[in-house]
Amino acid sequence: MKIAGALFHTIIITLLAVLQSVVFRHGLIAGVTPDFALVMLLFSSIQHGSFKAQTAGFISGLVQDVLSITPLGFHALSRTLIGFLYGIFKGKLFMDPILVPMLLATFGTFLKAVLSFLTFSAFAHEYAAVVFTRSLGVELGLNALIAPFLFAVFKLAGVFKATREER
After folding, report:
1. What is the pTM of this model?
2. Do the beta carbons of residue 80 and residue 54 sit within 8 Å?
3. Does residue 73 lie within any of the structural domains?
4. pLDDT, one tens digit for every residue, the chain (167 residues)
């Protein structure tokens, strides 16, 4: 694993987190923004494995925590766990260009919601009911729709291509 590759990988996902937190903070459809950083974290987790995904998830999650009103570590915890879980499947999935990215994004978004619910239940139970709303359904749909496009763009660009040592 090259440090420069891991650093570049983390920077791309973090920039997407900043983009969605700052530029699209009012939402695109029905006040909801697709989670670009999560979708790219899922893609890179499948491509590179758990270690890089955990690192990128933690750093991009901390950046999102700083840019939002959530407590420090809220997004970092869920992104780290999601990166680890998806990274386990490195090299074990056949990557269909449309269906698999949509399924990965849908399940990843739902997993993010479940982890958010569990975190709220443990630390701020009065906000736990906020997680499973109509906005989650819109976000599930948006993430499923953008996933094939983001996967294709980054796969064609070769941005997250594994180095020889990582295979």
Report:
1. 0.88
2. yes
3. yes
4. 445 566 777 888 889 989 988 888 888 888 899 999 999 999 989 888 899 899 999 999 999 999 888 889 999 999 999 999 999 999 888 878 899 999 999 999 999 999 999 999 999 888 888 899 999 999 999 999 999 999 998 888 765 555 555 55
DSSP-H helix ranges across the chain: 3-18, 36-48, 50-67, 74-87, 99-123, 134-157
Is 167 inside any structural domain? no
Number of domains in the chain: 1
CATH number where 97 lies = 1.10.1760.20
Q: How many whole angstroms separate alpha carbon 58 and alpha carbon 126?
A: 26
Domain around 24: 3-162
